[in-house]
Amino acid sequence: MKTKEHPKQVRDKVLGKYRSGLGYKKISKTLNIPRGMIKSIVKKWKEYGTTTNLPREGRPRKLTDQARRALIREATKRPKVTLKELQSSTAEIGVFVDKTILRHELHRAGIYRGVARRKATD
Questions:
Q1: Mean pLDDT, the chain, as a whole number?
Q2: Total number of domains in the chain
Q3: Exposure string for 65-78, b = 16+ CB within 10 A, e = fewer
Q4: Could you tell me the sign of the dihedral formed by the alpha carbons of 32, 34, 37, 39, in that order?
Q5: What domain range is 84 assigned to?
Q6: What Å distances lie between residue 118 and 25, 81, 105, 115, 121, CA to CA?
Q7: Integer Cα distance of 103 and 111 in angstroms
Q8: What's the confidence (pLDDT) of residue 93?
Q9: Pair (13, 38) in one structural domain
Q10: Are 51 and 44 in contact (CB under 8 A)?
Q11: Strand ranges in 1-122 using DSSP code E only, listed in sequence order
Q12: Which of 14-18, 56-60, 73-77 has the lowest mean pLDDT?
């Protein structure tokens, strides 16, 4: 998974150097960009004929990585916290989501809500 997208000017510089005959390693050293990134820029250009950002498939996630980590941290720290409380804590961060989304994210992280029932005493 690539962590950041480079500006169009940088990608065009990479292609210019590639077209002039430089290899991935030399381009990587001169522009201070990882060789794998150079390779993926050139591959994208060969495949699609463009260096612009292509549209992604699917709906983007509502929770950012930072908000998701905060949600998981809060849920593991306080196991009996309700989804409503988690919803208000994510709203404090600035991310407004429904409780079902929170539940889905917690399930993806392997955290399942629920409190054990008390045993009836006779």
A1: 87
A2: 2
A3: eebbebbbeebeee
A4: positive
A5: 65-108
A6: 65, 18, 28, 9, 9
A7: 9
A8: 86
A9: yes
A10: yes
A11: none
A12: 56-60
